[in-house]
Amino acid sequence: MxxxxxxxxxxxxxxxxxPDKEVLAQAAAARLLTRVLDVQSVRSxxxxxxxxxxxxxxxxxxxxxxxxxxxxxxxxxxxxxxxxRFLPDGDPDRNETQAREALLDGLVAEHGLPAAxxxxxxxxxxxxxPEEGAAAYxxxxxxxxxxxxxxxxxxxxxxxxxxxxxxxxxxxxxxxGHVASLFPGHEVLAAQGTTTGVHASPKPPPERVSLTFDAxxxxxxxWIIAAGAEKAEQVAAALADGPVSEVPAAGxxxxxxxxxLLDAAASxxxxx
Length: 272
Ligand SMILES: O=C(O)[C@H](O)[C@@H](O)[C@H](O)[C@H](O)COP(=O)(O)O
Fold this sequence. Notes:
By secondary structure, the protein is α/β, with parallel strands linked by helices. It has a single domain, classed as Rossmann fold (3-Layer(aba) Sandwich), CATH 3.40.50.1360. It is 29% helix and 18% strand. The chain contains seven helices and ten strands. It has helices spanning 21-40, 54-64, 95-110, 130-143, 213-217, 232-239, 264-267; strands at residues 5-8, 13-18, 46-50, 77-81, 83-85, 168-172, 195-198, 208-211, 221-226, 257-263. The protein has a seven-stranded mixed sheet with strand order 1-2-10-9-6-3-4. Helix 1 packs across helix 2 and helix 2 (54-64) runs parallel beside helix 3 (95-110). It is globular, with a radius of gyration of 17 Å. The chain starts with a strand and ends in a 5-residue tail after the last helix. The relative contact order is 0.17. Residues 1-11 and 153-158 have low confidence and may be disordered. The structure holds 6-phosphogluconic acid. The site of 6-phosphogluconic acid has 14 residues, from helix 2 and strand 5. 6-phosphogluconic acid is lined by residues 51-56, 83, 85, 95, 172-174, 181, 203.
């Protein structure tokens, strides 16, 4: 495949296939910057949820290298995470650490992103358990839930999930179909509220903090970014609306739109 292709699925799902992982990251970065600019033209603040993983971090690095960075009013952007490994501040395996190195430190230092607008999930440096971290993050999300804009007064209605109106929520996907730290067959899939502590994760480290499905599904747009042939089977299963208990990514849908941003290898299931 030499170009990029897309198709509109019924409803609100869009699948976009790029030639390879590098183009995928570059395109996701361009798309993210454009989305933030578009949203900023009609409302502020903008809330973006970040993901870890190699494609997620490559996307942030591509954002950092874009000439469009100065076009964004970063003072009106808030950054959150979909999940975090329960590791000390500064640990190189924290999604936060990797995102700061790839993008956020530069935005704070040079482009006016207020340090206070970066909202990492707490780890053992500040709380004793993943549950404490999840509770603290839920409270922070609740404090920002009032950021909902005037042009969407209906979003204030009773029963609204107590999180900000996430404009874009980025997710990587593991070869097992997990998104955030919502793993197939794991009790975390039944977690209530907006955040949850995670134990016995099948992928190290075993302890994590994650958004729940309710929080993820409250986002206006959910973008799942996945590359590599090892993802193809679960991508296909999710796009076939497989059971969330087996393919958690199938349950990650946005209110307005769900984008599947793939490379060619992840988009084609090889017959066995
Ligand atoms: O929390 C983690 O252990 C990872 O962040 C993980 O959830 C990752 O996002 C996906 O496995 C996709 O990772 P890749 O993009 O590297 O395939």
